[in-house]
Amino acid sequence: MKHPASISLVLVLLPLAVATASAAATAGGAANYLVYVDPHPPGVDCQKYQLGILAAALGGEEKAKAAMVYNYRNVMSGFSARLTPSELEALKKQPQVNRVLPSATLSLMSSNFDGVS
């Protein structure tokens, strides 16, 4: 069972991580995003389906392959991709895209949390 303090820590740090990722993207550079999409149709390869969504937004399969970081298919339907602000806006317009969030890596400041290391 998770300790309530660990949940509080995540709730405190998550907005900071999202704000940091958003600031990096608005500064003109590319940033990583988590993209939630509709599930792939039966009989269609999941990775090809997701690559097709990204390719439609970026204007080509080669650009999509270069931008895609990871493809998710077990727990959620989506992928992570490194996108510029203009690419991000184009991707958000794709009908299969449900939600796009900045990707962030969170880490604890200490390896000793409530006596657990």
UniProtKB/TrEMBL annotation:
Residues 1-23 form the signal peptide. Gene3D superfamilies: Peptidase S8 propeptide/proteinase inhibitor I9. The keyword Signal applies. Keywords: Signal. Residues 53-108 form the Inhibitor I9 domain. It comes from the Eukaryota. This is Inhibitor I9 domain-containing protein. It comes from Panicum hallii var. hallii.
